[in-house]
Amino acid sequence: MKAKILALDTSTEFCSAALMIDGEVLFSGEVAPREHTTKILPMVDKLLVDAGVKLTDLDALAFGRGPGSFTGVRIGIGIAQGLAFGADLPMLGVSTLQAMAQGAYRVQGATHVAAAIDARMSEVYWARYSRLASGKWQTQDAECVVPPQQLAEQELENSQVENSQIWAQVGTGWDAYADEFKALKLQRSQTGVLYPESQDIVVLAQHELEAGHQMSAEQASPVYLRDKVAWKKLPGRE
Known about the structure:
By secondary structure, the protein is of the alpha/beta class.
């Protein structure tokens, strides 16, 4: 089934929207820190006009569910929910870390990807993925928020992948913590993929839709990974 899916993402400095129609992807995006609220809806409107479709013609609306910037993730899911409510569309949440893995495949054909987004506070949002023949991604290291030096110090848990495997690195975390990552015992290659992009989210969303993982707008929720840290910042919380 080739569905009509709109995807948007504002979880990092990069703001983007993409529209998949019959397997073809239209895309718009740019690095626009603190301008997501003014940029994203015009991008969506232009994509719909260029494709000659209305929001109500679509099958689903996908969004980058995080992890990423607290504010950015909230903006993205809020706008996505508003659009989905108005057009009565189901929603599809896609991991921003996995979206970057898909980006590495799109750019370089990479099938083993290590993703690290700068999470500030001397930590990264981290995950590793391997691409299956079906086009889906198998998680090797589950999403987490972790100090990069801890990754370097601990043995990587997955024993199914040989240590000789070269991992394509994606995300802003690698440059932000270059010194800490030097000790990480992974053979790595550069990809140039720094941010999750909706043109990759929409491809992953197609798999989610086929698997029946759609949800209502009321059920859509973000993934922060650092909920407990935010909670502890409040006086008297533990």
